[in-house]
Amino acid sequence: AMNLPELLQFDEDRFRKLFRRTPFWRSKRRGLIRNAAIVAGNQKATICIPYLVQLLQDKEELIRAASVWALLQMSNSEVTQHLQRLSLTESHPLVLEELRFLQDTN
Question: Sorting pLDDT into bands at 50, 70 and 90, what band is 106?
Answer without folding.
Answer: low
